[in-house]
Design a protein that fits this description.
By secondary structure, the protein is α/β, with parallel strands linked by helices. Helices cover 38% and strands 22% of the residues. A hairpin with a 2-residue loop joins strand 4 and strand 5. Bound molecules: adenosine-5'-triphosphate. InterPro entries: AAA+_ATPase, ABC_AA/LPS_Transport, ABC_transporter-like_ATP-bd, BCA_ABC_TP_C, P-loop_NTPase.
Length: 274
């Protein structure tokens, strides 16, 4: 039986894109992740929330090959990610944005986006061997793809400006574009609206939804902005002290007594927006 076939009486469900199972990660006496399990379905926007030090960044670092867990399995499609190096994982199709912007500030928007493509579609050696025609065709295809991203993220007015001169919210958008430029199959968003004002946050929220709804790209998002998470995510995993407390829809999570107690404190309720 294949992953998408159902047993009699079951509804058909596509295989998850990502299977993160029973992952344990520790550093000399500190347990960062203590049996974390979750799946991300095709086209799903999956959010991870939790207090400072709960283990959110550690999940991203395991996913992108920066940390190697002591226990557990991480499967991306048919690939086992544990033990793979970050550049291999990037080539398999996992792209990431960072809490702190990691762009070349003196290069233009277009050049930063081109770098996002070249990292995963190199052809320098081929060009050196005389494959000039093929290299040129690749270059044209890369430029076309980058222009599509410029349109998609509404970056046209800044495309030839150095990134360092742009407002913070636009820089974060360029970083998102650079991640998209590698044509990922899964996107990891690390606090995509951190430090943004309301207008920038609303713009970013719109682009994240467009990525899910128009590109159908599954995403894992770590974010402190509870309102944004409740508004955007299909499902949310709440973690505390490296352990999942509850995984469910925004509504299920918002009304879970353990979540309210452990994450927000007895006196607070998770903001529900519908
Ligand atoms: N390289 C490391 N060496 C030692 N301890 C680490 C390391 N990375 C993470 N930790 C510890 O693991 C725990 C989880 O950290 P992590 O950064 O994953 O939390 P977080 O939920 O992302 O926090 P924040 O919201 O503050 O970014 C913390 O106790 C942290 O101090």
């Amino acid at each position: 039986m294949t992953a998408t076939e159902a047993r009699p009486g079951e509804t058909t469900r596509a295989a998850p894109v990502l299977n993160f199972e029973d992952v344990v990660l520790g550093f000399d006496g500190v347990t960062a992740l203590n049996g974390v399990t979750f799946q991300v379905d095709p086209g799903e926007l999956f959010a991870v929330i939790g207090p400072n030090g709960a283990g959110k960044t550690s999940i991203f670092n395991v996913l992108s090959g920066v940390y190697r867990p002591q226990r557990g399995t991480v499967r991306f499609g048919d690939e086992d990610l544990i033990g793979r190096r970050p550049h291999t994982i990037a080539r398999l199709g996992i792209a990431r944005t960072f809490q702190n912007i990691e762009l070349f500030s003196n290069l233009t928007v277009l050049d930063n986006l081109m770098l996002g493509r070249h990292l995963h579609h190199p052809y320098g050696v081929l060009a050196a061997l005389g494959w000039i025609g093929k290299a040129r065709r690749n270059e044209l295809a890369n430029r076309e793809a980058v222009e599509e991203i410029v349109d998609f993220l509404e970056l046209a007015q800044w495309r030839r400006l150095p990134v360092g001169l742009l407002p913070y919210g636009v820089q974060k958008r360029v970083e998102l574009g650079r991640a998209l430029a590698s044509q990922p199959k899964l996107l990891l968003l690390d606090e995509p609206v951190a430090g943004m004002n309301l207008e920038e946050t609303e713009d970013m929220a719109r682009f994240i939804l467009d990525i899910r709804d128009e590109l159908g790209l599954p995403m894992v998002m770590v974010e402190h902005d509870m309102g944004l998470v409740m508004d955007l995510a299909d499902r949310i995993m709440v973690i505390d002290f490296g352990r999942p407390i509850r995984t469910g829809t925004p509504k299920e999570v918002a009304t879970d007594p353990d979540v309210v107690r452990a994450y927000l404190g007895e006196e607070h309720r998770v903001v529900e927006r519908s």
